[in-house]
């Protein structure tokens, strides 16, 4: 069995689940999970967790993301991207200065509110929003806060004119940000309907496009029995957490996942990693109900082998 993190380049036309399904056939293993949904029309970085590394998938999912997107001003769609039906068109001739667009982007940088689009996988009352949408229903959706760390105008023009105006942006953001909703919000700042016409995820956490393999490349590496060399160990997902080598007197307690007295590092960090011979064996967090205690959030079986740095 392969274990480790595989940075995959998801190609257009496939869902994230499609990628997992194909990898299960290529690798002949079931224990595979992805780290964040990408729509079929979107390509980009999609870290995949194999075997024991599926336990750290949520840490990779929670990491920041970077995208390059094209925003089109003048039309809005049901899905807020190019796949949906047009619901509003403004055919007037529009004129924007570069500074005007930069001001709109600046106003949406930082912590902002977003309402998930109806065509999304967010669940309301146990049902995904897109299921309501496909049934012709529009329901109230919860507004949530997301963080836009950086919002950069990539297009070089000084003046943008026309009935439909498109420009490219780079977005670095927190988990849960909808770039298509951000495109609509940019349109609102500029005073016109808008949608996201193209999108590529260029980074997920510290993985970038240059780290990624396509499905066909994975197939070739499996056939040459050299995929292992391209995998990252599960420790890669824990690299930003403080680490502590387990002292001899706590080895059995940690291995058994016991509740223990909390260490001082948990005053400043949400999680700590305990290691043995520099390999992670457990992630501990503050106990939610027992003050001064800590409990395991993840336990790792490092005897399976296959993890590589």
What's the SSE blueprint?
Blueprint: E1 4-10, H1 16-27, E2 32-34, E3 43-50, H2 57-61, E4 65-73, E5 75-77, E6 86-89, E7 94-97, H3 98-107, E8 110-114, E9 123-124, E10 127-128, H4 129-134, E11 144-153, E12 159-162, E13 165-173, H5 179-190, E14 194-204, E15 207-208, H6 215-223, E16 243-245, H7 251-255, E17 260-261, E18 272-276, E19 279-286, E20 293-299
Parallel strand pairs: 3-14, 16-18
Antiparallel strand pairs: 1-3, 2-3, 4-13, 4-14, 5-6, 7-12, 8-11, 9-10, 11-13, 14-15, 17-20, 18-19, 19-20
Helix pairs in contact: 1-6
Give the tally of β-strands: 20
Which stretches are low in confidence, meaning pLDDT under 50 for 5 or more residues running? 304-309
Q: What percent of residues adopt helix (DSSP H or I)? A: 10-25%
Structural class: alpha+beta
Radius of gyration from CA coordinates: 22 Å
Overall form: globular
Strand content: 25-35%
**Under the CATH scheme, which architecture of the largest domain would be assigned?**
2-Layer Sandwich
**Main sheet overview:** 9 strands, mixed
Contiguous helical run count: 7
Protein name: tRNA pseudouridine synthase B
Keywords: Isomerase, tRNA processing
Function: Responsible for synthesis of pseudouridine from uracil-55 in the psi GC loop of transfer RNAs.
Enzyme class: isomerase
What would you note in describing this structure?
It catalyses: uridine(55) in tRNA = pseudouridine(55) in tRNA. Belongs to the pseudouridine synthase TruB family. Type 1 subfamily. The active site is at 39 (nucleophile). The protein is α+β, with helices and mostly antiparallel strands and 309 residues long. It has three domains: 4-63 and 205-236, Pseudouridine synthase (2-Layer Sandwich), CATH 3.30.2350; 68-199, Pseudouridine synthase (2-Layer Sandwich); 241-300, PUA domain (Archaeosine Trna-guanine Transglycosylase, Chain: A, domain 4). 19% of the residues lie in helices and 35% in strands. It has seven helices and 20 strands. The chain has helices at 16-27, 57-61, 98-107, 129-134, 179-190, 215-223, 251-255, and strands at 4-10, 32-34, 43-50, 65-73, 75-77, 86-89, 94-97, 110-114, 123-124, 127-128, 144-153, 159-162, 165-173, 194-204, 207-208, 243-245, 260-261, 272-276, 279-286, 293-299. Strands 1, 2, 3, 4, 8, 11, 13, 14 and 15 form a nine-stranded mixed beta sheet that branches. Helix 1 runs parallel beside helix 6. The longest helix has 12 residues, at 16-27. It is globular. Mean pLDDT is 93; it is low at 304-309.
